[in-house]
């Protein structure tokens, strides 16, 4: 390869991977989901009295726009989605009043685990990703009984210990006390990876590729989380989001792509995710980012990675299996909003063009 990698997307990305989106539902009649067979999109309802295939709006950090619809569009939307061929399953955990209920959240997690077991029996090679867009501090009624939180943690532990599943959550800050940052559940569980081995906590970076506020050492995975365009409430409406809430489904889409393109399954996909992450700056706020390109058009990008951010590139090994879909552009649109941009590829085969505009 004489030019920087330009990873090519196609309509098979995510094929064969089932992704559960746990939250307040999703509006699948949005234009962003026209490519889906919307009648066949499955819903799991934690509360049988709330079985409407629509999203119940919640307040997320002051934003009352439909987060579930946004998460789904970042995962598999036709314009802004990363992995369009995943099989989405919407796990709705709001109650009959359209509000989050802690017991319903637990039920949603348990139902997701049961569904994965059932689907695994039908297809032993099936692979799954669970995106949890619900955080405990979003629940109007605080959890007062420790046993409920124990049930909740146990449900996540079971999911994150499955051989064929990955559990993903954004690193959401609940509150700040002086110099201490307290994270919301489930992201705080990422502090003990031994108990939750396949719980992937995703932090957010802004356009300078610096961590926004979640820069703890136990958070290993970062993605853009500022001014991210997604589907909104009305069928043709779009809006922008800030926060790790919306970084998580992007990373889920990358993992689904790795799983569908690779041969090694879950462990290989997680290994590739870690392998392709690197810092794009030298400050303490510059963290290893696994996803880029969201703020610029991949066709006309002029992007230069600082020299000090390229230290890991010298150790990067060319991966022919992964890069088999990596070609010179030849007029074909490089993957938009997904993995590599021209001039931002660690492949040593592209060394002479690194950082070129």
TrEMBL record:
A Gene Ontology molecular function term of the record: serine-type endopeptidase activity
BP terms from Gene Ontology: proteolysis
Classification via SUPFAM superfamilies: Subtilisin-like
InterPro entries named among the record's database cross-references: Peptidase_S8/S53_dom_sf, Peptidase_S8_subtilisin-rel
Matches recorded under Gene3D superfamilies: Peptidase S8/S53 domain
Name of protein: Peptidase S8/S53 domain-containing protein
Phylogenetic placement of the source organism: Eukaryota, Fungi, Dikarya, Ascomycota, Pezizomycotina
């Amino acid at each position: 390869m004489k030019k920087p990698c330009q990873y090519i997307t196609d309509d098979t990305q995510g094929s064969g991977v089932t992704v559960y989106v746990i939250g307040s539902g999703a509006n699948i009649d949005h234009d962003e989901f026209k490519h889906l067979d919307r009648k066949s999109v499955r819903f799991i309802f934690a509360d049988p009295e709330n079985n409407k295939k629509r999203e119940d709006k919640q307040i997320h950090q002051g934003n009352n726009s439909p987060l579930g619809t946004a998460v789904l569009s970042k995962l598999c939307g036709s314009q802004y989605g990363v992995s369009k061929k995943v099989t989405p399953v919407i796990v709705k955990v709001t109650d009959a009043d359209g509000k989050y209920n802690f017991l319903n959240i637990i039920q949603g997690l348990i139902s997701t685990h049961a569904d994965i077991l059932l689907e695994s029996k039908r297809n032993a090679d099936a692979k799954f990703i669970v995106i949890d867009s619900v955080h405990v501090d979003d629940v109007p009624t605080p959890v007062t009984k420790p046993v409920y939180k124990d049930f909740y943690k146990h449900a996540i532990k079971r999911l994150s210990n499955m051989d064929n599943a990955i559990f993903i959550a954004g690193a959401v800050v609940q509150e700040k006390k002086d110099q201490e940052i307290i994270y919301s559940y489930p992201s705080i569980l990422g502090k003990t990876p031994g108990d939750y081995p396949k719980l992937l906590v995703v932090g957010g970076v802004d356009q300078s590729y610096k961590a926004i506020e979640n820069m703890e050492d136990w958070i290993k995975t970062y993605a853009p989380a500022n001014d991210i365009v997604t589907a909104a409430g009305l069928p043709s409406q779009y809006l922008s989001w800030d926060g790790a809430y919306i970084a998580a489904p992007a990373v889920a889409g990358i993992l689904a792509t790795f799983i569908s393109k690779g041969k090694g399954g879950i462990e290989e996909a997680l290994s590739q995710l870690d392998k392709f992450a690197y810092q794009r700056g030298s400050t303490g706020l510059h963290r290893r980012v696994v996803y880029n390109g969201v703020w610029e058009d991949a066709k006309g990008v002029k992007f230069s990675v600082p020299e000090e951010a390229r230290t890991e590139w010298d150790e990067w090994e060319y991966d022919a299996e992964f890069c088999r879909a990596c070609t010179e552009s030849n007029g074909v649109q490089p993957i938009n909003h997904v993995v590599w941009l021209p001039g931002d590829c660690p492949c040593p085969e592209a060394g002479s063009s690194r950082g070129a505009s």
